[in-house]
Amino acid sequence: MNEYDVLAVFCGPDGRHGNELGVVRDGSRIPDPDERRMLAAKLGFSETVFVDDPERGVIDIYAPSTRLPFAGHPCVGAAWLLDVPELIVPAGVVGARLDGEFSWIEAHADWAPPRTLRQYASAAEVDALPVPPEGEWIYAWAWEDEAAGRIRARGFPGRGDGITEDEATGAAALLLTAHLDRALNIHQGKGSQLLTAPQPAGYVEVGGRVRLLSSSPSGN
Predict the structure, then answer these.
(1) Could you tell me which of 119, 101, 97 has the C-alpha nearest to residue 172?
(2) Pairwise CA distance, residues 219 & 4, whole Å
(3) For residue 171, what pLDDT band results from cuts at 50, 70 and 90?
(4) What CATH number belongs to 116-201?
(5) Per the confidence metrics, is the pTM higher than 0.90?
(6) In this predicted structure, what is the pLDDT of residue 159?
(7) Local confidence band at 102 (pLDDT 50, 70, 90 cut-offs)
(8) Comparing 3-106+207-217 with 116-201, is the CATH topology the same?
(9) InterPro entries per the record (predicted)?
């Protein structure tokens, strides 16, 4: 039976919340892409990581319904778990580092999947939003304190696979940072925190707190 870890990625300052991530440490035992996709759907996380080479940082990322060339919170979580200087994903080489309580990745904005960045007038408007119908992936955001770079955000995948709202979304934060071209402190979901900073040549750093929730058999 393959073991998998459950991490909370982008936890708040109190260590709570964060987006749950499944990590299958011995991904090489499930080489078939269809089997990986089915396991990801069975586990039910917004994303599941399969570690193909823990020493080199080679990982494969799946949402419940599709394979992803790159995703933010899976890379931040895998970087923390594997403690390697880089991760290798289909989109490219992701820089990785640990800095005190934060795990950081550096990725190119073009690697992030498309998201609709929708600005609202206030954090209260974002808080009051209902879950939109299935369709486009919407990252709703508003300034909490523009001078300080503080943002309130919510992420609505619109995928139809049972994930109606993402608690914390690194790829969308990366896109928003590239769009605004400034460092951000993002409060997303119920209490998650994402920190970002633009880097040269279209790269963006995304960081957050990670904690291990559990290790369980996958049933396969």
Answers:
(1) 119
(2) 10
(3) very high
(4) 3.10.310.10
(5) yes
(6) 77
(7) very high
(8) yes
(9) Phenazine_PhzF-like (IPR003719)
